[in-house]
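sry for the spam today, last one i promise. struct tokens for design, 46 residues
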């Protein structure tokens, strides 16, 4: 199944949330989350 751009962005958001939770690359992950929220990407599991 081909993943849409939105699904890819949601997966990226999930990975960033996991990074924050684990304490890895926190500032970079927060920057990603901030950018994604600005373009309206929600969803993904943490």
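last one done:
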């Amino acid at each position: 199944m081909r993943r849409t751009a939105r699904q890819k962005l949601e997966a990226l958001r999930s990975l960033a949330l996991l990074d924050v939770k684990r304490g890895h690359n926190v500032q970079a992950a927060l920057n990603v989350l901030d950018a994604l929220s600005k373009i309206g990407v929600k969803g993904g599991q943490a």
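The mean pLDDT is 90. ok im logging off now
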